[in-house]
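Each record in this resource describes a single protein on a pair of labelled lines. With that in mind, the following record should read easily:

===
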Amino acid sequence: MSTPENDSEVVDLKELKEIMDDDLELIQDCFADFISEWPVQYVEIKGAVLEKNAQTLDESAHKLKGTLRYLAAESAADAAMVLEAAGKNNDLGGAEEKLDHLKNECQKLIEYIKNFNR
């Protein structure tokens, strides 16, 4: 069960409301979009890591990072940024561990979204 302290580490609700102009319907729509798009984005990023395709990793992680920043999910966005940098710098050492970290952070976001009712 998530606690308010854990929630604040997943999404900065104050920032999210500011980004979304306090529009609860927009927040819920964006959360729903993330839930539906995440599996496809993850498969693309994972494929880039496994194939050692730095350019695809850079592009895919960059796109995901933007989505996560828009959702004020800073820890998850930071995890995507690390993978983006790995792709940009063609430095894929440890990319699988970085991918696991991203997956864990996005799972926390998914749990947050499932419990979101504000």
Observations:
- Residues 4-114 form a domain with the Four Helix Bundle (Hemerythrin (Met), subunit A) fold (CATH 1.20.120.160).
